[in-house]
Amino acid sequence: MKTLPLEVPHMNAQEAEEVFGWILDGEASEEEIARFLLAMTERSETADEIAGAARALRARLIPIKAPENAIDVCGTGGDGHHTLNVSTAVSLVVAATGVPVAKHGNRAASSKSGAADTLEALGLDMDVAGETAEKTLAELGICFLFAKNHHPAMGRIQPIRLKLGRRTIFNLMGPLSNPAGVKSQLIGIARPAYVPIYAAAKAALGTERTMIVSGDEGLDELSLAGGNEVADVRGNAFEMKRVEASMIGVPNAPVEAIRGDDAKHNAAALKALLDGNPGPYRDAVIFNSAASLLVAGTAKDWNDGADQAREALDSGGARDLLKRWIAMTK
Questions:
Q1: Binding positions for Mg(2+) 2 (predicted)?
Q2: Cβ–Cβ contacts within 10 Å for residue 258, how many?
Q3: For every one of its 330 residues, what pLDDT tens digit does the chain have, with 9 covering 90 and above?
Q4: Which residue positions form the known binding site?
């Protein structure tokens, strides 16, 4: 068994890749891994450590074939706000506009209902969805890449994460290790001050265009409550920006307005959204969809992206896409 460097203040990218290789390959005990992850969380992970850890996870994943223009939309989780599943809804909306979405996610580790939990409550057979991911991505323009199916090395890590019940570097590694090899992403993180650090990690890994976003209140997506920190990453560089919901003509709303609960509750809210319900949940989904369409390169500006998102909802396109997806898993 390997001994993890609990006392090392920071690691460079190469050292982090090696250490996380040990962790993922089962060369350290569960107790030591838990202590190591908590120690990293307490001192905050560096960009080099995140990039190195992500490379270790990427080297061990099971990939799928995907369209060149496929994107991913996800949050790192761990923000403690227990909101409705915004990125899951955004994935459906964006896919309904014609942009393929390779949704990478998992069951809840530090929230009440993760993307997989909510989609399953809506009727999507997660086992079949995982087995048919390439097919649904090719035919419908959407798939769910269940982390357990594509990251077998994570099998022994998930119980540790559940036991810890809090954010760790694995929340940060997941979005950077999409099995479809997407070149563009919208990634929400739970710490606004950490956006440039995470953006530096993404830039080190390279991307066509990715937005790293965080609401001022620590929301791991674009927030309606006020301002948002955004890093616009292109290639190996990034630019910091400030954005607000007023940019697309939707009102501010407190985070409590999109508070979620368990999978049944969140699934009902998502169904109502797709059926045309107005309100803050819809506004949040439109805001984040606009950003997603910008990184995909199919929206010329924020308002164009918002208009495309509204059309996908109002036409029933997003709702019908979910129905066809569910039907393909029966």
A1: 220-221
A2: 26
A3: 788 887 767 999 999 999 999 999 999 999 999 999 999 999 999 999 999 999 999 999 999 999 999 999 998 876 677 889 999 999 999 999 999 999 997 765 445 567 888 999 999 998 899 899 999 999 999 999 988 889 999 888 989 988 998 889 998 999 999 999 999 999 999 999 999 999 999 999 999 999 999 999 999 999 999 999 999 999 999 999 999 999 999 999 999 999 999 999 999 999 999 999 999 999 999 999 999 999 999 999 999 999 999 999 999 999 999 999 999 998
A4: 75, 78-79, 83, 85-88, 103-111, 115, 161, 220-221
What the chain holds in terms of domains, given with CATH numbers, is: 71-146+169-329 (3.40.1030.10)
Task: Return binding residues for 5-phospho-alpha-D-ribose 1-diphosphate.
Answer: 75, 78-79, 83, 85-88, 103-111, 115
Query: What is the distance between the alpha carbons of residues 65 and 220, in angstroms, rounded to a whole number?
Result: 28
Separation of alpha carbons 140 and 207, rounded Å: 24
Q: Is the pTM of this model over 0.90?
A: yes
Q: Residue ranges for the binding site for anthranilate? A: 75, 106, 161
Residue 35 burial class via C-beta count within 10 angstroms: exposed 0-12, middle 13-18, buried 19 and up: middle
Cα separation, 39 vs 254, whole angstroms: 33
